[in-house]
Model the fold of this input.
Amino acid sequence: MCKNPRVSVIIPAYNAEKYIGQCLESVIGQTCRDIEIICVNDGSADRTRDVIQSYMAKDDRITLIDQKNLYAGTARNAGLRICTGEYVVFWDADDFFDKTALMRMADQMDKDRADICIADARQYDDARKVYISKDYYLNKKRLPKHIPYSIQTAPQYIFNISTNVAWNKMFRTSFVKSEHLWFEEIPRANDQYFVVMATAKAQRITIVDKVLMNYRTNTKTSLTSNFSLSPLCTYETLKRIHDALLSESAFSAKAAQSFANKALNSLLYSLKIQTTPESFRQLYNCLIQGGFHELGIEDKGEKYYYSKGEYAKFKELIQSGTMENYLFKQSKKPEGSGQAKGLEMTLAYKVLKKIYCLKIKYFCMDRI
Done:
């Protein structure tokens, strides 16, 4: 056991026996040695617990917490309650990390006396065994000139510099606890509230411009494959965040613009990953019938939005009238065109298209 650890690493694990070993190897091998590793077994039904225990026998820095299957947010909170490190990270059991990640981030936190450090990351396609670079884990185009920064010094893009995930960020533990920041104990999107509110409250946020995290995608256990079980989860979380931000004195007009852009991006993605017509319809109706408005997403002109493509999609949605009209208009566009590409990949679109082709063949022949 590490006394007075510099960094606490909290790892929620649910049915992760296939990947938890690689994750722990990358944590145990960190160049920053004075760490504590808190694994929270979230009611796994496979050998996840056994794998963790096998590593505990090799490394006494590992602690195991068992809980019923209460989801990753509850597991992260359980680790947060007992962690003792100066800094804390929340890493996922199916990801793996550069061996210098903790050292680089902690050193940068020390140097800039920061509350949060954001690092760059990449995806690892588990099926194809290839790495994929993405620019949204650390959007360098949105970085302010002066770092460290905060919502007071850089409100324009404060919520657009990184995604609302916890695993590519390090937090000062005393900051998290003094601000009473906790993960939402919900099945999906449990880290969004924590990350956005931490970003809004932090006095100093710093950056490590290096890929340090490998986020595993294209797995059978991916959470995004289950988003249609609760299609409104992203919207409901964003609504709670928006309501909380309104009470913050630093939530200026520019910060509100940043949030509106982040929320629009998240909601368009949520629509894209719905896998049933029913879930697509539920989210579509929610957004059109006041959901966009309640999050401050209004038609304030193209210049208000940071992505012309996302603004165009927003306009099409609010002017569509019905979900069917929206989908049929999308279907008229050339296959793979910029605005239709994401929608064409959704099962909701494909199923609805098939349904209408079967019922009204003449209509589809003329329009699709």
